[in-house]
């Protein structure tokens, strides 16, 4: 699948998120020669290069590494923390080819903010991915900037599809999407942690409880990943009438777990809005 991708892709800042997309793309067959990454730390650069067989540039003077990678790319993925994204965009601006598409995966950084930091007319796409992208199981949103033509959006869709399911959304839905799928893997891992702790409370050895919780959440995830899977139907198939699971779910409902999850997601979305306000105009 990744063999259909002919563009040269630069990952500027290659930590958890950009690293996951890079891993997903290479696993899908994107040739390593079409990929460049940059990181701050030279040791990390050497490790990444060894692990993935891609060119990884590092520099104590990061400006040069980022400019060099961006200048040779058709598509640039900005993957540093929100607070650093606009400085990075300004750093690479002199090196960008006019047609190079700049994709930002940063939470809370709007298309307007990105376009203001980049050369006039530069195609920009805002994306909100998630870390299962490393397994080709991510969810990655795309929202078009002013100069991202339908053709460039299609190109981005093709590239990011190698890392998972791509959905195109209006930019005003990014914070909501992020509160479900961007942060969502952490919620699932948190559930696994809580299930393990519950097992220990019920008298199981900690290692066994962790194994049970981890494999159960992973197994349930595999079932959900099957074509046509429906969470409600799968839950009902575990829940015998008047049985044990029914009692657990009733307790979750009585204690307001759905409301707690909704409140957490709302807090995530509101935090994104607050970060946008903090960083706008910087
Ligand atoms: N971690 C996640 O699950 C998700 C993260 N994001 C977004 O992805 C972005 C990155 O987040 P993470 O990957 O979690 O952070 P991270 O800290 O794991 O990765 C960022 C990497 O960029 C490097 N870096 C920083 N400044 C640099 C520069 N000027 N040049 C080259 N490398 C530089 C850092 O050393 C680090 O390795 C953030 O903007 C975040 O909002 C979006 C969706 C999900
Ligand atoms: O926690 C964060 O801010 C980022 C955005 C979505 C997931 N991680």
Automatic annotation (TrEMBL):
PANTHER family tied to this protein: PYRROLINE-5-CARBOXYLATE REDUCTASE (PTHR11645), PYRROLINE-5-CARBOXYLATE REDUCTASE 3 (PTHR11645:SF0)
Gene (name only): proC
The protein's name in its UniProt record: Pyrroline-5-carboxylate reductase
Function: Catalyzes the reduction of 1-pyrroline-5-carboxylate (PCA) to L-proline.
One Gene Ontology term of the molecular function aspect: pyrroline-5-carboxylate reductase activity
Reaction catalysis annotation: L-proline + NADP(+) = (S)-1-pyrroline-5-carboxylate + NADPH + 2 H(+); L-proline + NAD(+) = (S)-1-pyrroline-5-carboxylate + NADH + 2 H(+)
Residues that coordinate or bind NADP(+): 12-17
Pathway note: Amino-acid biosynthesis; L-proline biosynthesis; L-proline from L-glutamate 5-semialdehyde: step 1/1
Species of the source: Arthrobacter pigmenti
Lineage, uppermost ranks: Bacteria, Bacillati, Actinomycetota, Actinomycetes, Micrococcales
Keywords per UniProt: Amino-acid biosynthesis, Cytoplasm, NADP, Oxidoreductase, Proline biosynthesis
EC number(s) recorded for this UniProt protein: 1.5.1.2
Residue ranges annotated for the Pyrroline-5-carboxylate reductase catalytic N-terminal domain, each copy included: 9-107
Sequence similarity: Belongs to the pyrroline-5-carboxylate reductase family.
